[in-house]
Amino acid sequence: MRSVAARRSPGDGARAPLACGAGTPSPVRSRAKLGTVLRRLVLVALVGCSLPAGDYFGRVPDRADIDPGHVTWCNQGEPDHLDPALASSAASSPLVATLFDGLTTYGRDGLPVPGLATHWEVAGDLRTFTFHLRRDARWSNGRPVTAYDVAHSALRVAHPLTGSPNADALAPIKGATAYLTRRVYVLRRAIAPYRAGEVVERVGDAAVDVSARTGARPLALRDLGAAPNAAYAVVPPGAPVTLMMTTGGRATLPSPDGAAWAYVFWQRDLEGVAGWVPARELDGEPDGDQVLQVRRAAARDTPSAALAPDASTDRPVVTVHARDVMHSTDAIGIAVPDPYTIAFETADPTPYFVAVAASRGLRATPIEAWSRWPRHWDRPEHIVTSGPFHLAAWQERDRVELVRSATYWDRGAVGVDRFTAFSMDDQAASTNAYFTGACDATAANTIPSSYLPALSGEQRGGRAYKDYDVSPFLGVYFLWIQTEKLPNRHLRRALSLAIDRTAVPRFLHGGEIPTAQLTPGAPIARLSDAELAACGVTRETPGVALMMEAGLCDVPPPGRDHDVAAARREIALARAEGGVPDHPIEYRYNAGSEGHKQIAEYLQAAWARIGVPVELVAQDWN
Known about the structure:
- By secondary structure, the chain is α+β, with helices and mostly antiparallel strands.
- The chain has 3 domains: 2-119 and 368-471, Periplasmic binding protein-like II (D-Maltodextrin-Binding Protein, domain 2); 185-328, no CATH class; 489-619, Dipeptide-binding Protein, domain 3 (Roll).
- Helices cover 16% and strands 22% of the residues.
- It is built from 12 helices and 31 strands.
- It has a 5-stranded mixed beta sheet with strand order 22-23-24-4-25, with helices on one face.
- Strand 15 and strand 16 (273-278) form a beta hairpin.
- Helix 8 runs antiparallel to helix 11 (564-576).
- The longest helix has 15 residues, at 594-608.
- It is globular.
């Protein structure tokens, strides 16, 4: 559980434009006025101050001090990126969702609602999802938002050059993971027994770059169909570029003149640049003579292929040259039949894909901006947006300034003109800002845990503050262990077995559910009799379960829960194998968070009890 709040001004609704809920931060969107009451913005308490005696913990400004068109928000740190393909932090996600519209977005109940897509169809086998885009969506530069923009974003996320941390959102899509790992290609010519255009997969681990290209003459990188003199970058003759896609594919733009065009990336500097050129100008393939072995791709990785058992399909291995195959976007199960329709094929039934459509990995981004500044197009001077707000300023380690978009399709639902997000990763500083009225609200999960009892009313005779609320948060707190430094499995098992997870909610005070299971869910002890029957467990079964829908339940693997005796046995085995380091294990956690520090100190003590010393290192998030 996580505490959430929004402060009210006298006679006004809560003044907070962003929300974090159901495990995924999301902006106040489409049909909800930004002036309405939001109950998912976290309140933080002022460390070292006496508790206010009134109804509100935060200072309620006088009406004369209020600009009703401006909301200030204490974010939980510096955004890592505002590019949906690269943003991965909790500080970035709400801002990204406010700047860029999704095919779907999250409604107040945490379920997907229409965004760029007005409606969608789901095939009966839950493997094909077709979204129909609205005709009135516009980029901030005035250009219509089309299905090709959504496809370009997804293909960029899936491309290995991008290194996107959000590529996992595309994992259900046919061929996406194989494309990301450069395991699938499309044949450029017939090689018996395969036809030109068939999707094939690489056999073996040979690393061959099939996408390197050169031009005998300068390559004028430009927008699709533009004249050479409209180029914004020129690649010198012979300089290598990476072919990313071509016109006329399943999900790529059609040719503007009937001839093939190629979209290439040139690493001219740390920034790089991308653009379109006539495909005929790419007359050099530096690695074209390299040899690799391929076979017909598995049906689950082949768009439009029937999911017949691969054992019954003839898949002979053949030898080809790099010039015979292309790392093509046609190997991915994404199709754009017209500018306002996009379809996704998944390898397995994926009932949750409509919610995936709201993720960062499928947020449309403008190809013209990314092409010119691939690493910095999300800066105020370059960015092009499609959401309810537009980026006006980004002062690093200070604030992000947003203004209401003049081109957003549902701008009448946006109730404020300006939104300021302060980049505050220290809970004490954020607390002080909220308490004194400098912030109208704060980000989710930033409340100091030691103040939860006071805010909830436990220390005020049961009177909770009106700007304090608690809502469920779907997530799991787990530890990353560098297996290269701690390769011994007995040591890692001991570390898990030594942790009494039931103690954590007692010092965090947030109603957390202790579990050794990696997948979050509802405590089995709280399930109804019908849900227990569907899960095949009893009320005494420890752990959590996932109720997807009525009658459909999943009980995640139990994990290794608290057992000190077993932990000591595992440590003995680890020592016998030389698997326990002769120096303290280093445990790193985010600075500025009381909860992270408390958990770190608790783990340090728990592991010391089984003879494993730990050094704690606090680090800034970025």
